[in-house]
């Protein structure tokens, strides 16, 4: 993997062709490089005893989940030398949104990851400029945000992958082409107060509204959230534009200093009038195209758990293309969408063979074979395994992907689902086990109050902004009928708190930063869960779904809700 930031478009195009024609060779060479480089690490030595042969790797190296290698990773976290797992020193850890025992996974990393990230962004620039005409002449309003990092016991930084990239030299010294030209100064992206940063991002984008050709965020949830801030703050934003001065409540010094350059103390009454007129319209349908008339497309990941935001984005953005950019994780970058203007339901990602060594466990069929990237079959679904250059070997990512086609010899994948995730609003991923734990905590509260939990299910409600978890509970009272329950507010509020307290760090982080709203309990009347079962076609094997996805089932629940509780703090 080499930096391609200095390549011209033709060279980038040729590279993309080379990579996608020579998948097998590139993957085999990369595996060889990884095994040779790491032959002396404790982990690889245990299984390969100095060999770097692919056959032995396939035979001896176990397929692992995070929990299996956690003891090795924890040793590095706690200060032992990183050559336990990686020959190239580990310099930082990523906090993955996946959890292990309720805590976020700590994924080891180093500059090799950032090299891959920078590489894929450079390739994306090429792909988008090839498909979207006129983007080179404008700027992007990208709601990039960084979050505070912490330190491992041995002093290595722990951060989210996207934050780490934005704070790195790769971003600081980024190429000067259109794709890296933003309406917001870097200080606004790097500030530590999300609310202030989002406000400033919007102000920058509004002041430069005629130059904005694309709007985006890494994930669709971030963009929806930014639009909500716009809905709440447009009057104040207009006042700032009118006067040329930033609101006093923006206290972050980086934001204040850089915004004074953007605003320049210059009053802009006409611009403020125009924006006010657009925003005071009753319907906000298509607001994005009205406020930013030169916009060509929207850029945000809209697949997987983000697909639920597509209708909201379509409402605000009319028929603008939604470009879902890359497929990545804390473990590695997988690939990019080389057909950026396709419909959201057709989005696939082409895996880049130079980024990590990828393997695939078939989801169906009797073959237990683990396949290489070059050998996957169209239409088949697989679990994805990663072996990277910085200490992970045959690691299950927890994603299921399906082959939809090929570009040259490179397979393209539709993201099918994350295994075992039932609820998610933003990057939080609450699995069945976590949800059961949370409901058990609520059950203890109910139990101590003479109430019995009959059944429960859940739903990620994104009709509110921010979205929030809804837990439907059917509860019996030993002494009263269901109407009595409505009065027991204190108990149900306690249940809400107990559940939120039990959920993982990523959830709490979202709550703390306002990207996830308070968990809500909706109590349903006696017999509602029986009515839910009646909808099922296989009653003999019926199990209450842990999470509701069908509209019909949701209707049954909603018509039977007798009380709602949530903690407003
Ligand atoms: P994290 O390690 O917290 O960055 O989370 C990585 C996970 O986010 C991946 O394994 C996927 O489950 C999900 N993800 C990342 N990119 C995409 C994408 N383009 N489409 C769908 N899911 C994605």
Describe the structure.
The protein has about 575 residues and is α+β, with helices and mostly antiparallel strands. It has three domains: about 10-110 and about 325-420, no CATH class; about 140-320, no CATH class; about 420-565. Helices cover about 40% and strands about 20% of the residues. α11 packs parallel to α15 and α16 packs antiparallel against α18. The longest helix is centred in the middle third of the chain and has 24 residues, at about 220-245. It is globular and about 65 Å long. The model has no long low-confidence stretch (mean pLDDT about 90). Adenosine monophosphate binds near residues 97, 161, 304, 397 and 415.
For the sheet with most strands, the description reads:
8 strands, antiparallel
How many distinct helices?
Answer: 21
Strand order of the largest sheet: 9-10-11-16-15-14-12-13
How many domains is the backbone divided into? 3
Unreliable stretches: none
Radius of gyration: 25 Å
Principal-axis shape: globular
The ligands bound in this entry are: adenosine monophosphate
Structural class comes to alpha+beta
Average of the residue pLDDT scores: 91
Give the end-to-end Cα distance, rounded to a whole number of Å: 48 Å
How big a fraction of the residues is strand? 15-25%
Number of strands: 22
Proportion of residues in helical segments = 25-40%
């Amino acid at each position: 993997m080499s930096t391609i930031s200095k390549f011209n478009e033709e060279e980038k195009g040729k590279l993309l062709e080379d990579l996608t024609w020579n998948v097998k060779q590139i993957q085999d060479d990369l595996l060889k490089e990884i095994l040779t480089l790491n032959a002396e690490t404790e982990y690889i030595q245990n299984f390969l005893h100095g060999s770097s042969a692919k056959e032995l790797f396939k035979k001896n190296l176990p397929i692992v989940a995070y929990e299996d290698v956690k003891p090795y990773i924890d040793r590095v976290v706690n200060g032992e030398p990183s050559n336990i797992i990686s020959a190239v020193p580990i310099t930082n850890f990523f906090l993955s949104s996946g959890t292990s025992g309720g805590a976020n996974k700590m994924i080891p990393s180093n500059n090799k990851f950032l090299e891959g990230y920078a590489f894929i962004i450079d390739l994306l620039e090429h792909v988008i400029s090839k498909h979207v005409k006129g983007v080179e002449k404008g700027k992007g309003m990208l709601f990039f945000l960084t979050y505070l990092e912490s330190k491992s016991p041995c002093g290595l930084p722990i951060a989210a992958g996207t934050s780490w990239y934005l704070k790195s030299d790769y971003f600081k010294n980024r190429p000067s082409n259109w794709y890296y030209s933003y309406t917001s100064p870097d200080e606004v992206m790097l500030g530590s107060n999300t609310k202030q940063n989002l406000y400033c991002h919007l102000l920058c984008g509004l002041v430069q509204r005629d130059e904005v050709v694309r709007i985006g965020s890494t994930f669709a949830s971030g963009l929806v959230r930014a639009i909500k801030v716009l809905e709440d703050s447009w009057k104040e934003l207009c006042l700032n534009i009118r006067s040329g001065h930033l609101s006093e409540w923006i206290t972050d010094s980086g934001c204040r200093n850089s915004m004074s350059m953007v605003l320049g103390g210059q009053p802009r009454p006409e611009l403020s009038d125009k924006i006010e007129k657009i925003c005071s319209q009753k319907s906000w349908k298509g607001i994005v195209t009205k406020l930013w008339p030169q916009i060509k497309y929207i850029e945000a990941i809209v697949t997987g758990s983000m697909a639920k935001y597509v209708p909201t984005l379509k409402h605000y953005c009319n028929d603008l293309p939604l470009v879902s950019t890359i497929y990545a994780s804390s473990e590695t970058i997988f690939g990019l969408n080389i057909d950026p203007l396709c419909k959201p339901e057709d989005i696939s990602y082409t895996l880049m063979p130079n980024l990590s060594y990828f393997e695939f466990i078939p989801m169906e069929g009797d073959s237990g074979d683990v396949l290489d990237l070059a050998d996957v079959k169209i239409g088949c679904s697989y679990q994805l395994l990663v072996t990277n250059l910085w200490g992970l070997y045959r690691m299950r990512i927890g994603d299921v992907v399906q082959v939809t086609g090929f570009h040259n010899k490179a397979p393209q994948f539709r993201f099918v689902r994350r295994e075992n995730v039932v609820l998610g609003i933003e990057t939080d991923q609450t699995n069945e086990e976590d949800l059961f734990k949370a409901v058990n905590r609520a059950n203890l509260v109910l139990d101590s109050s003479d109430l019995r939990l009959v059944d429960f299910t859940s739903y990620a409600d994104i009709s509110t902004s921010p979205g929030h978890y809804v837990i439907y509970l059917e509860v019996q009272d030993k002494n009263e009928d269901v109407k009595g329950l409505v009065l027991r507010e204190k108990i149900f509020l306690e249940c809400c708190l107990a559940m939120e307290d039990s959920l993982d760090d990523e959830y709490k982080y979202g709550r703390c930063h306002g990207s996830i709203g308070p968990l809500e309990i909706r109590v349903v009347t006696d017999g509602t869960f029986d009515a839910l079962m009646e909808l099922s076609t296989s009653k003999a094997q019926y199990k209450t779904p842990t999470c509701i996805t069908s509209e019909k089932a949701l209707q049954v629940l909603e018509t039977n809700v007798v009380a709602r509780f949530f903690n407003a703090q």
